[in-house]
């Protein structure tokens, strides 16, 4: 008997083997999904307006790193805005070489920008 025939015979005689193998594959997929939550993310966004009174361009690049440390995410990025902007869009204008930023955000809502550290997360009071 060939190996494939033996496996087919075993699965016909013991269908629970197939179910166990499927549960194993499901568990491996769930583990991969859970670990994917900590993958480094690279985000890029480019915007430009080339028609009208105000012609401008914006470039944004951000790298995010989620961690298991109190649900904190660390990120840093660079952005550059060039051209002419109306007064209400002045926040889009940057220095000629652009500007860099870094920050961290935790699940408890604490945010630390640049070099500062945010407040520590406290555990909620539990009801007895």
Describe the structure.
The chain has 128 residues and is an alpha+beta fold. It folds into two domains: 1-36; 38-120. It has two helices and five strands, in the order ααβββββ. The chain has helices at 3-13, 15-36; strands at 41-49, 56-66, 73-83, 99-105, 111-113. The chain has a five-stranded antiparallel β-sheet with strand order 1-2-3-4-5, with no helix packed on it. Helix 1 (3-13) packs across helix 2. The longest helix is centred in the N-terminal third of the chain and has 22 residues, at 15-36. The relative contact order is 0.11. Residues 114-120 and 122-128 have low confidence and may be disordered.
Low-confidence sequence ranges: 114-120, 122-128
What string gives the helices and strands in order? HHEEEEE
How would a crystallographer describe the biggest sheet? Answer: 5 strands, antiparallel
What is the overall silhouette?
elongated
Oligomeric assembly: single chain
Computed CA radius of gyration, to the nearest angstrom? 26 Å
Task: Output the number of helix runs.
Answer: 2
Structural class: alpha+beta
Q: How large is the share of residues in beta strands? A: 25-35%
The helicity comes to 25-40%
The counted number of beta strands is 5
Task: Look at the structure and give the mean pLDDT.
Answer: 81
Q: Could you tell me how far the N terminus lies from the C terminus, measured between alpha carbons in angstroms?
A: 65 Å
How are strands sequenced across the largest beta sheet? 1-2-3-4-5
| Total individual domains | 2
């Amino acid at each position: 008997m060939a190996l494939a025939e033996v496996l087919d015979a075993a699965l016909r005689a013991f269908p629970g083997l197939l179910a166990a193998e499927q549960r194993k594959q499901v568990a491996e997929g769930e583990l991969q999904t859970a670990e994917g939550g900590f993958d480094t993310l690279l985000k890029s966004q480019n915007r430009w307006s080339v028609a009208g009174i105000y012609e401008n361009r914006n470039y944004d690049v951000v790298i995010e790193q989620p961690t298991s440390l109190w649900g904190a995410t660390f990120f840093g990025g660079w952005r550059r805005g060039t051209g002419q902007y109306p007064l209400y869009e002045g926040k889009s204008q940057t220095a000629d070489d652009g500007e860099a930023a870094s920050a961290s955000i935790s699940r408890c809502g604490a945010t630390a920008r640049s070099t500062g550290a945010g407040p520590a997360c406290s555990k909620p009071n539990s009801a007895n």
